[in-house]
Amino acid sequence: MLRGIAADPAARALNDDCAVLEIGGKTLVLTHDMMAQGTHFLPDADPADLAWKLVAANVSDLAAKGARPVGALLGYMLGPDDARFLEGLTEALSHYGMPLLGGDTISGNGPQVVGLTAIGEATALPVPSRSGARAGDELWITGPVGAAMMGLEALQADCGDSLAYRRPQARLAEGIVLAPLVTAMMDVSDGLLLDGRRMAEASGVTLTLDTHAVPLAAPENRRDDALRWGDDYELLFTTPPGTKPPVPACCIGVAISPAGVPLLIDGSGPAPDDRLGFEHS
Amino acid sequence: MLRGIAADPAARALNDDCAVLEIGGKTLVLTHDMMAQGTHFLPDADPADLAWKLVAANVSDLAAKGARPVGALLGYMLGPDDARFLEGLTEALSHYGMPLLGGDTISGNGPQVVGLTAIGEATALPVPSRSGARAGDELWITGPVGAAMMGLEALQADCGDSLAYRRPQARLAEGIVLAPLVTAMMDVSDGLLLDGRRMAEASGVTLTLDTHAVPLAAPENRRDDALRWGDDYELLFTTPPGTKPPVPACCIGVAISPAGVPLLIDGSGPAPDDRLGFEHS
């Protein structure tokens, strides 16, 4: 929906879900994520986990821009346990060194909705975007997919380790180290295949993906699911050929000239009914 | 609730509902307002009016800081008529010269909730706050109270002019002109008496208010209600004695040394059960 109002030239990074704002010779990166009970978090979620995830999801957007956190504004609808939310919020903000600058608290009469605006300062220019991949570039991911999926299933089964789902880690340090080296970068929040397609479309290239090169935090027989699952917040990025990333990362494909479809998965375009990941509104 | 996490020194303006952030020699002012259907807007509200009000409420926060708008981030839960919301949003953003920089759209399964983060740049330093009133200062308001109240009643009765309720005007130009002259300033969004009490408490003074000096956009027999009604978005400010504001404004009281209660209304403290205005969460 927002794209309809992105004609304004100032909204130049809107399709990246982050805004880039020049001010006083500095470059700010701003992002806003909103989460609704029943859509983005379970009705019985621990409010501290919700707070953590809200912060991590926003910081992950900053990480993909190589931005260091400067501060956050919270939009908070009162919920089942505000003190517990506050605990998780304080913990997450402290973890990422991001002070709470302000915000708004409201009462509501329906499912809880929370939002966070994160403000960061770019550490490398130009600020990486998802649109910079060029034919010949190599495609990388900073870590495995599937951890959040397995964590959610552990939580639902009340058995096993749900930490990766409840307390995802934004790749902040990795993003800052990578920002000067990448041609394109984004976080994988909606599923590797879907986000990969978005990067390909934004860049005007085809990305070829070798799914078996993708590191997995799930059993091998769940590989197809893990490639389409979100919430892992690893960084997906491209580099000029021959670049060796200075942080742990796996090469999972290459960018080629447009080949009819944005994404070639093990050599084939996805089936028409393949949603590839989690589609927002 | 937010005050619980305001111990962080960076949150120095949290009790003003605006954050002040120094960056690259510039001073940014940031604010976030959230509105929920059924709590902050009528379920059958025109989505374009909702968008307008969301923008105006945030711009009003910037106005109280003497900040010029730089941009906004929208948090938008899809609603009954997104195209109509977009119309009102575009109109309001254009009216205040504030580009949309980015944001998030989500699906929800309950009453609609929307949020806006407005970013402004301070035009006068120090940035006015609600805490600067000193004994001897004069207390002013830029315009009448009660217009939004009458507008809402007109809307509900389907008779008369509801514009002041549906399309409130933030006093942006007035705020910028006043910022270098005031000792304290805030917008009247929750009711003159309540916001006056907040200014008095933040400043550590008592404000004496002559209610009959307050300009009224309602019948005289509704004066008591109008003093307690929000959504008018006039600016309430204090100046050193003898200052003549360069914009239309009415002197409605003075600041005196603490006199036991923060607010003296026509010489008396308010009754214990007087809510004075619209209390958030």
General description of the model:
The structure is a homodimer of 281-residue chains. Chain A is an alpha+beta fold. Chain A folds into 2 domains: 121 residues, 2-Layer Sandwich (60s Ribosomal Protein L30, Chain: A); 128 residues, Phosphoribosyl-aminoimidazole Synthetase, Chain A, domain 2, CATH 3.90.650. Chain A is built from 7 helices and 11 strands. In chain A, strand 3, helix 2 and strand 4 form a beta-alpha-beta unit. The longest helix of chain A is centred in the first third of the chain and has 17 residues. The termini of chain A are close together. About 4% of the residues of chain A have low confidence. Chains A and B meet through strand 1, strand 2, strand 3, helix 2 and strand 4 of A and strand 1, strand 2, strand 3, helix 2 and strand 4 of B.
**What proportion strand of chain A?**
25-35%
User: What is the first-to-last residue Cα distance of chain A?
Assistant: 8 Å
Largest interface, Cβ cutoff 8 Å: A-B, 64 and 64 residues
- CATH homolog superfamily of the largest domain in chain A: PurM-like C-terminal domain
What topology does this entry show?
The structure is a homodimer of 281-residue chains.
Chain A: E1 19-23, E2 26-36, H1 47-63, E3 67-77, H2 82-95, E4 100-106, E5 113-122, E6 138-141, H3 147-157, H4 163-166, H5 172-178, E7 184-187, H6 192-203, E8 206-209, H7 223-226, E9 235-239, E10 250-256, E11 263-265
Parallel strand pairs in A: 3-4, 8-11
Antiparallel strand pairs in A: 1-2, 2-5, 3-5, 6-9, 6-10, 7-9, 8-10
Helix pairs in contact in A: 1-2, 1-5
